[in-house]
Amino acid sequence: MANISDVAKLSGLSKTTVSRVINNHPYVSDKKREQVLKAMKELGYIPNPSARRLRGQLTTTIGVIVPRIVNPFFAHLINSIEQAASEKGYQVLIGQSYEDKEKEVAFLNLLKTKQVDGIIMTSTENDWNVIESYIEYGPIMLCNDYVNQEIAPMIRLNQAKGAYIGANHLIERGHRKIAYCTGGLFDEQGKGKDRNRGFQKALSEAGIKINPKWIFIDQHTIEDGKHVLRQILEMEDRPTAIFTGSDEVAGGIVIAAKEKGLTIPNDLAVIGFDDQPIAEILDPKLTTIRQPVDLMGEKSIEVMIEMLENPEMEIRNYDLPIELIVRQST
């Protein structure tokens, strides 16, 4: 296994200079820094995190990127991550990307500047090749977002199953005219693609054709849900049920439907996703797909700390359970 002396020999620099680069010392030229980093990469040398922590060179801070913390799902997830981190002696630094690529990169740069030891990404905005380039500066893992790659662990839920059992629940209730809301595009990658596949599978098995007019893309908020309901009311041929990608969107639909004098579920059955607190507060209460948010947060911290303590750990995915919660909205 390579050590700091090997890095110094290959780079042609002193061990002092190598140490300064490893510890992000400001008084090192870009040329020398590049020489050291190149040598470290060639040798596969990774500084020992336990030793660096004893010398005060790790921050014991874990960064977490969320799209927006006002979303109750991400607020709940952050709370779970922070509690689990605190129990292990770590603090959490939260960054909101607002689904903006530049903001996401700015937060990833905290790995470069050693302001965080590792980063948990609950969503990704940039292409994976952009994100992957930051792994040389510290561990990155995905939680609640899915990318086809094998170098960063992922905390995953069976999103296809969630959408499948949700759509199938509506079919079992006798619905054939089913609308669908998604947070992205209907053919996107990652968890959105999995949900889309699960929804399509359920309808296909029931012999139901998807009506493109009943597919609503890029829906995220309560206001989005209200707008979806208004669009449905303008249709001559309306769906009798709708499956949404979040409880917030579903909540907006339920609220707007009541304002327009519709009865849920008689006029329109509604199902959400996440099982956020709003699901129990709505009238009628919302049928939804429950994601184990507390378990997601706990597992994320467990895996991240293992990555920090053991850089040679096996990279794998962790699958968590998902279930249908039936309430009055269907």
Automatic annotation (TrEMBL):
InterPro entries listed in its UniProt record: HTH_LacI, LacI/GalR-like_sensor, Lambda_DNA-bd_dom_sf, Peripla_BP_I
SUPFAM superfamilies for this protein: lambda repressor-like DNA-binding domains, Periplasmic binding protein-like I
Domain of life, source organism: Bacteria
One GO MF term: transcription cis-regulatory region binding
The keyword Isomerase belongs to this UniProt entry's keyword annotation: no
Alphabetical list of Pfam families matching this protein: LacI, Peripla_BP_3
The protein's name: LacI family transcriptional regulator
Organismal lineage: Bacteria, Bacillati, Bacillota, Bacilli, Bacillales
